[in-house]
Amino acid sequence: TTALGTLLRCFPCERLCGGCTLPPGAPPRPPGALPPAMGPPRRRLPPAARLPPRTFRSYLPRSLRTYSCVHCRAHLARHEELISKSFQGSHGRAYLFNSVVNVGCGPAEQRLLLTGLHSVADIFCQSCKTTLGWKYEQAFESSQKYKEGKFIIEMSHMVKENGWD
């Protein structure tokens, strides 16, 4: 009868709260008694759903066509900030943007690029730390001055999002 009493006492607890756990010194529950009222049972979430949401420094409006990091989907630039699609990055085609968001900047260094000597700083995604391209800090030839303060992002590191039909 003791085993039957334990079974009757623990089955409701097992189903509702995971087991018959009484605080030390508490009187035992009578057979068949339910545990004290608790909130609704918690639903188990898949492991990916338990991760905290990613937060970015800046979010671009969902109604606008945007470019995002292909690796982590952090917003990078609005389509309206695109200046040119005919640039060459270190590893392939690249776009020139007037401004970008959610990027960090490394130290400036001088590089001899296809269009001459420039002072550039590598830029990286603030979320996943992937190097995306560079920022033109200074151009030494007068015909290249328009690039100063602009950003190159390689196409292989970007994805188009929102309203690109």
UniProtKB/TrEMBL annotation:
Which organism does this sequence originate in?
Cepphus grylle (Black guillemot)
A Pfam family the protein falls into: Yippee-Mis18
Q: Where is the composition biased (Pro residues)?
A: 28-39
Top-level taxon in the UniProt lineage: Eukaryota
**Region annotation (Disordered) ranges:** 28-50
Tell me the gene name.
Answer: Ypel4
Question: Which UniProt key words apply to this protein?
Answer: Metal-binding, Zinc
> In its UniProt entry, what is this protein called?
Protein yippee-like
Q: Name one GO molecular function term.
A: metal ion binding
Q: Which family does it belong to?
A: Belongs to the yippee family.
- Residue ranges annotated for the Yippee domain, each copy included: 65-162
The keyword Zinc belongs to this UniProt entry's keyword annotation = yes
